[in-house]
């Protein structure tokens, strides 16, 4: 009995030390990354859109929980993460509400107009989506992604002439990046 106990003590001590080491490393990692998040509170992540032929540009980080405390409800980074998570989970009605909240917090954020526009389109509210996308273009006509999204929505509702204008604008802004390549491919697929 005592011999069995003596063999378990080193194993138990090893597990405790190993567990503390892992805890320390992961804590350091997450604290280091939370500092980066604080520095980017005004940056809004673009949800991963599924364009024709599976063309994508970015994919948002998956969150472990969609529960947000009342104290973070006005934090743009938290609202953005929540909206992007809803979008990724195809809960477009909740995503749209969150993007609307983001617009209330930052009414000049073109990326939010873009995200809201595509979300409204997926909800079947394409005319409202086009209105929001055009509002975003009016704020910053040099934002390439919103032109791509605008062209995509126009093409989906059958307005090929306006789709061609928007996609041409997006493609001409930078033909070498992923957005420009996506715009060019979509232009080639227009009737």
Instruction: Assign the CATH superfamily of the largest domain.
Output: Tetratricopeptide repeat domain
The number of distinct β-strands equals 0
Low-confidence segments, given as residue ranges, are 33-46, 48-72
Task: Let me know the largest β-sheet.
Answer: none
Note the beta-strand portion.
under 5%
Structural class by SSE content: mainly alpha
Instruction: Quickly name the level 1 CATH class of the largest domain.
Output: Mainly Alpha
- What is the helix tally? 8
Spatial shape: elongated
Mean pLDDT: 79
Rg (CA only): 23 Å
Q: What is the CATH T-level topology of the largest domain? A: Serine Threonine Protein Phosphatase 5, Tetratricopeptide repeat
> Distance between the terminal alpha carbons, to the nearest Å?
82 Å
Percent range of helical residues: 55-70%
CATH architecture of the largest domain: Alpha Horseshoe
Count of domains: 2
How would you describe this structure to a colleague?
It is a single chain. This protein has 191 residues and is mainly alpha-helical. The chain has 2 domains: 39 residues; 147 residues, Tetratricopeptide repeat domain (Serine Threonine Protein Phosphatase 5, Tetratricopeptide repeat), CATH 1.25.40.10. Helix content is 69%, strand content 0%. The radius of gyration is 23 Å and the shape is elongated.
